[in-house]
């Protein structure tokens, strides 16, 4: 419509049609893509939550008590960015707290026993915390960093050698005692510190907070004992891992006047949920019969009876795996990126080597995951090498450690590339200024480069972890189990992961499996992944605000 | 309780008071937990790699099963039952296909059991003996391989093995009319098992025999539901898979009877049990590794596996295989016990 032959006017007319066509084609394409995905997810959630069987009364009740107030809150918050920020912080820190609690319960009490955790707390975590705190107070003590590094290397060795004695000590204390000493006391110190530093609370108030937390831990024990689902250990872990983030979010939101209306969100959610339940009971409406329920999350898989099927061993396996993978990739990935960007020579023979490494890393990011599975099978399972007196025979077929290393290999290139991009985006004038103040290269990296590039690094890492948690092919290659009835007992026992079990269910004869149970598994996987992502988004936003 | 009114608290004072509080709380915690019998928080507190602590006669350790995806549901159901009785035993199952399990896992010593929907082949035996892996063969159930057609297929209810051979052999019939002139002159759409599967091997042997090759002109898959969907969507489709999958989807497709000279016999648990459903009823196996049977928890699981193979409720109702009779189960159990006593 806008095309015209060249006219006599001097500048002529330029066709805008290409630009307009491009704009609308892209728009329609992305809308179609998002809608298709949305419809698919809606189907999956519909099946997983068994919404088909719910009666009209149930829908009406929850629309009235939960959906409408929530929509009203969103409409209200739309024009108030402070409220949105507050509500997002409350929501994601609560999610993060739940995630942390679940992960801690899984790692500290299911995978490692409390006594083993206590042994390593005494030799690794405790000294590290103490050194860190000392380093914060005594800025002059430059040996602290080195001492921390030494603890990190020597601590695990000492802990492993003295495991016998130290676990006896831990068992003497009993598991609640262990968690009280190793979590609640440091948690109380952290709470007191945060109150004083972040919220400018008076000294007495912060000390009061520091004392109140352990006191609460003890005082609430009789109450906790009446709830059979929560053991004392779980209560102590949740108090620290869930209580601290939620407390922080609440304090942070309450501090700013404009943010306070954000508290309406949790109030609406909880009250709406309870009111909806009460109304449904009162009018006797048919409730949905979800596949995804507590039984599903806590029982072991079944092949013959869909109603008894559960995902528990696979959930634990996946979370164990992803925790290990995130530690490996963060340490190795960010380390490699810092080296390549800040230390590696970029001219001469060594410079050529650096360029070759960079090109290779970019190429490795595109290698299919099956190939990484084969690589993992080769170097972590089937290898037999004689290194002097030591024989290296791999880490076992389908063990947690093998799987974590293989998945780390898979996502390391992506993590390295995104971390390099993020480090490169820090203006070099900042570095020069830091050098000009007499800072060393390491100090510059720690105090200038890393804080500015952390949002980018975290974004890349989290996206990569999201890919890792859904991977199946490398796990099949290294011989991970498809079905297990108990979670992995340690680093070197076999594991199964959520995608493996979901894939096996998807090909069973029963319709209940192919639709209900599989859908519930997919939703569980999505929830774990989205929780992880939302925590990352929060951290990223925080650092972005600080950087600006 | 430590909130002394003397203005600014000294650090030492705070340390002592909070330390006292901590000690107090700790004492409370430990005493309570030991007092309330068997510790409320330490229910799952087993240390890693505890395969040696079978002091109280409780079995513990790892068991790995690989092999046929046909037998996988049966093995999983039995494993689940076993786990309920011995919760310290850690069972891992992977459906790898009969051949895949032998060559990649079992014969290199990486798994304790390999399930198979056909007997072990000569080349697999060679691979096992090359690696010094000895095994014991256990027949755990019987499956009725089921040939299915579309529900709108109204021209055939029954086929002879010879007709099946014409359809599935290489260079065989290309339209239904090629097999029987009364049938429609439409191309045959075939859906079958991939050649890594024991189902393929068995069908090949039972129907095609030595002289004919399996056609390559078909949709080959390891996944039974793809065969089901293919046949369900195509009026001229034909496919085959284990009876268990048909039992779960009886209304979706039509199962063909087999006429092996004694009239038409429909696939069912009863006909396979009576030995009438021929030649497509096939034995299913599991192969424990002899070396692994030396360990008590694996030997116990092998016994349990054999005992459960006569459990009609589990084998036929839940899974869809033909269970073993009490006598054949007993003779399998004796043979197994013989092997176990040799290695232990």
From TrEMBL, chain B:
Annotated keywords: Signal, Transport
Region of interest: Disordered: 31-62
Composition bias, Gly residues: 36-48
Gene3D superfamilies linked: Periplasmic binding protein-like II (3.40.190.10)
MF GO annotations: phosphate ion binding
The organism's place on the tree of life at top rank: Archaea
Family annotation (PROSITE patterns): TAT
Name of protein: PstS family phosphate ABC transporter substrate-binding protein
Transport recorded as keyword: yes
The organism's taxonomic lineage, starting at the top: Archaea, Methanobacteriati, Methanobacteriota, Stenosarchaea group, Halobacteria
Keyword Signal included in the entry's annotation: yes
Pfam families: PBP_like_2 (PF12849)
Species this chain originates from: Haloarcula salina
Domain PBP residue range list: 54-306
């Amino acid at each position: 419509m806008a095309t015209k032959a060249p006219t006599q006017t001097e500048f002529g007319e330029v066709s805008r049609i290409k630009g307009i066509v491009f704009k609308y084609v892209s728009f329609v394409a992305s809308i179609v893509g998002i809608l298709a995905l949305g419809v698919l997810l809606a189907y999956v959630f519909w099946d997983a939550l068994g919404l088909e069987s719910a009666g009209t009364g149930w829908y009406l009740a929850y629309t009235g008590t939960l959906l409408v107030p929530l929509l009203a809150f969103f409409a209200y918050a739309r024009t108030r960015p402070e409220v949105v920020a507050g509500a997002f912080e409350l929501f994601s820190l609560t999610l993060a707290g739940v995630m942390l609690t679940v992960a801690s319960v899984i790692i500290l009490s299911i995978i490692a026993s409390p006594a083993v955790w206590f042994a390593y707390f005494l030799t690794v975590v405790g000294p590290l915390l103490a050194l860190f705190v000392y380093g914060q107070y005594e800025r002059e003590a430059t040996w602290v960093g080195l001492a921390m590094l030494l603890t990190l290397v020597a601590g695990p060795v000492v802990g492993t050698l003295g495991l016998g004695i130290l676990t006896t000590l831990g068992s003497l204390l009993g598991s609640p005692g262990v968690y009280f000493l190793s979590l609640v006391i440091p948690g109380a110190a952290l709470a007191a510190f945060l109150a004083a530093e972040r919220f400018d609370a008076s000294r007495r108030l912060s000390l009061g907070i520091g004392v109140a937390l352990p006191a609460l831990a003890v005082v609430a024990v009789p109450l906790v004992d009446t709830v059979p689902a929560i053991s004392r250990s779980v209560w102590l872990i949740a108090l620290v891992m869930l209580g601290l983030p939620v407390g922080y979010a609440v304090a942070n939101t309450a501090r700013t006047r404009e943010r306070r209306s954000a508290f309406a969100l949790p109030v609406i959610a909880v009250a709406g949920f309870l009111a909806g339940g009460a109304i449904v009971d009162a009018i006797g409406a048919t409730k949905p019969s979800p596949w995804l329920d507590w039984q599903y999350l806590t029982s072991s898989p079944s092949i013959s009876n869909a109603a008894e099927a559960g995902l528990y061993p696979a959930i634990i396996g996946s979370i164990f795996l992803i925790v290990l993978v995130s530690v490996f990739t963060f340490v190795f990935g960010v380390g490699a990126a810092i080296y390549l960007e800040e230390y590696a020579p970029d001219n001469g023979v060594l410079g050529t080597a650096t360029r070759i490494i960079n090109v290779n890393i970019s190429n490795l990011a595109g290698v299919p995951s099956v190939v990484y599975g084969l690589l993992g099978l080769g170097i972590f399972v089937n290898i037999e090498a004689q290194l002097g007196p030591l024989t290296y025979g791999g880490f076992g077929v389908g063990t947690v450690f093998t799987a974590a290393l293989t998945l780390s290999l898979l996502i390391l290139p992506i993590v390295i590339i995104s971390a390099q991009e993020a480090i490169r985006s820090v203006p070099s004038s900042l570095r020069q200024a830091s050098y000009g103040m007499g800072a060393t290269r390491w100090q510059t990296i720690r105090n200038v480069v890393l804080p500015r590039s952390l949002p980018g690094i975290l974004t890349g890492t989290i996206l990569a972890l999201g890919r890792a948690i859904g991977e199946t092919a490398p796990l099949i290659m290294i011989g991970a189990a498809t079905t297990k009835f108990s979670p992995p007992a340690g680093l070197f026992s076999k594991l199964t992961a959520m995608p493996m079990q979901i894939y096996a269910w998807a090909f069973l004869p029963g319709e209940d499996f192919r639709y209900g149970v599989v859908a519930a598994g997919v939703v569980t996987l999505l929830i774990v992944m989205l929780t992880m992502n939302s925590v990352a988004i929060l951290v990223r936003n925080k650092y972005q605000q600080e950087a600006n | 309780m430590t909130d002394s009114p003397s203005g600014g608290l000294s650090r030492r004072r705070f340390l002592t008071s909070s330390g006292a509080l901590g000690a107090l709380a700790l004492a409370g915690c430990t005493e309570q937990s030991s007092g309330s019998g068997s510790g409320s928080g330490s229910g799952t507190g087993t240390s890693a790699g505890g395969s040696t602590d079978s002091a109280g006669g409780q079995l513990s350790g790892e068991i790995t099963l690989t092999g046929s995806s046909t037998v996988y549901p049966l093995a999983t159901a039995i494993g689940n039952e076993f786990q309920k009785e011995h919760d310290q035993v850690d069972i891992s199952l992977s459906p790898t296909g009969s051949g895949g399990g032998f060559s990649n896992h079992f014969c290199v010593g990486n798994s304790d059991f390999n399930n198979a929907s056909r007997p072990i082949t000569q080349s697999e035996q060679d691979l096992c003996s090359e690696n010094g892996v000895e095994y014991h063969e256990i027949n755990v159930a019987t499956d009725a391989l089921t040939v299915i057609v579309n529900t709108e297929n109204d021209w055939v209810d029954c086929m002879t093995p010879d007709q099946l051979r014409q359809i599935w052999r290489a260079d065989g019939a290309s339209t239904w009319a090629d097999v029987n002139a009364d049938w429609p002159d439409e191309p045959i759409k075939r859906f079958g098992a991939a050649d890594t599967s024991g189902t393929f091997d068995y069908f090949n042997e039972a129907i095609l025999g030595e002289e004919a090759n399996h056609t390559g002109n078909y949709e080959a898959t390891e996944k039974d539901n793809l065969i089901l969907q293919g046949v369900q969507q195509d009026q001229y489709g034909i496919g085959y898979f284990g009876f268990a999958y048909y039992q779960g989807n009886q209304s979706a497709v039509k199962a063909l009877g087999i006429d092996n000279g004694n009239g038409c016999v429909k696939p069912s648990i009863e006909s396979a049990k009576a030995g009438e459903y021929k030649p497509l009823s096939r034995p299913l196996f599991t192969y424990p590794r002899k070396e692994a049977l030396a360990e008590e928890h694996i030997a116990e699981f092998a016994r349990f596996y054999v005992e459960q193979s006569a459990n009609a409720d589990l084998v036929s109702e839940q899974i869809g295989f033909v269970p073993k009779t009490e006598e054949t189960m007993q003779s399998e159990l004796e043979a197994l016990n013989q092997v176990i006593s040799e290695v232990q």
